[in-house]
Each structure stands twice: as structure tokens, then as C-alpha cells.
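sorry for the late reply, my laptop died twice this morning and i had to redo everyting from scratch. anyway the thing you sent over, i finally got around to it. pasting the sequence first so we're on the same page, its 227 residues, then the predicted structure underneath. double check i copied it right bc i was rushing
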Amino acid sequence: MSRPRVTLHFAQSLDGRIATRSGASRWISGPPATHFAHELRAAAGAVIVGSGTAIADDPRLTVRHVSGPQPLRVVLDGRARLSASARLLTDGAAPTVHVTHGGVAAGSSPPHVERWALPAGPAGEGVDLGALLARLEERGVAAVLVEGGRGVITSFLRAGLVDRLIVTIAPMIVGAGIDAVGDLATVRLDQARRFATERVIRLGDDVILDLVPSAAPAVLDGRGGRS
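ok and here's the structure:
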């Protein structure tokens, strides 16, 4: 079954944090990496964030630092928590999709905002990502950029829906804070999601890893051999 190509991109500290314990995340990466992030937006048909990120950062999700088209902005908000005053819903800078669960009232819509009611994800949490990608494909979107936060990052990885992973690593140690990725139910290392490095880019003080999924390695048996 076809679906849009999914690129997952986030910036993190050396110790894997995308924000401090208070939720502060501006700015982990430097200006050159921000420029690069806007290039990724300009190349995508849609950019996706979760409601937590939309509430905490009140982002615009537009292309501003480079030339290029504005992507469709998609906010996943299963419980309809996003304020009607959020910039995504008020600025009119780009077409926007506000995604909630079926049966959840989300209020009236400004002209640039579409409301989509989709099934819930596994265990009733979040939004069914397969249904989301199918709906985006119907709308003509061929490539999406997922920017976070942790819950959305984790959900796409858990569902095996990531075709390209781009991680911007800033040379800082945050300590206690918000992890980039949550629980993936990994018990053994052979269950870990593995990626192959396509390229490594240095932009200012930041290092960017451009990765694609790789096949699982052979499993070692109890005698140190390969099973």
C-alpha cells in the first residue's frame, strides 16, 4: 500500500534531550542548522507536529529562511487541546490541518484550517498514523516531514513508518530533560531500530546525521556464534 515518504527530523543535545525538564527547547541547534531545517520544510509536502509541541512552542512551521513553497501544516491533537489562539490556527500563513479523534469537538475553523477527525492510535492514544498518511496521500502529499515532539517521534518509529531519519546534534549536555524518543518496548539489542548513515554534515557547531533504516543484524547465540 502506497503512502507519503516520511522524514523524521529533530534536534537534540549530546545526551539525547530535545528540551530541558521545563520544556525549554529554543534554541538547541544554531542558525545554520535552522536554515537546513527550513530547507527540509520547503522540500516536504506537509510538516507534522504533535499538540504538545504546538502548545509549548507555538510554532509557525513555515519556510522563512530559504526560498521555497510553504508545506501543508499538520498538528496532531487527538484530544483537541490546542488553543484557538495558536498561531497555526490564526496566522493564515499556510494551509493547516487540525487532526483530532472522531467525535471530538474542535470548534469552528478559520478559512486556512481544515479539521480532520481520524481514528485513535493503538490503545486509544494519539492518532492512527496509517489513516493520517492515507488521508495525506489522498490530498496529493508525496512527502512529509515529522518534527516532533517526543510522543509523535516515538509513534512514527514504533509504527515503522520512518523512511529517513535526520538528527541534528548540538554540542551541549542538558542533563535531566525531555528525551528525544520514548519507550519502544526494546528488551534486547536485536530489537532496536537500526539505521545506516547516508551522510554526516557539520553546520556551525552542530553535526547532522542523515540516516535510513537498515536491516537487523544477525543475532548472536549463547556461544558467541551467529544464529
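The CA atoms of residues 4 and 142 lie 4 Å apart.
thats about all i looked at so far, will dig more tmrw
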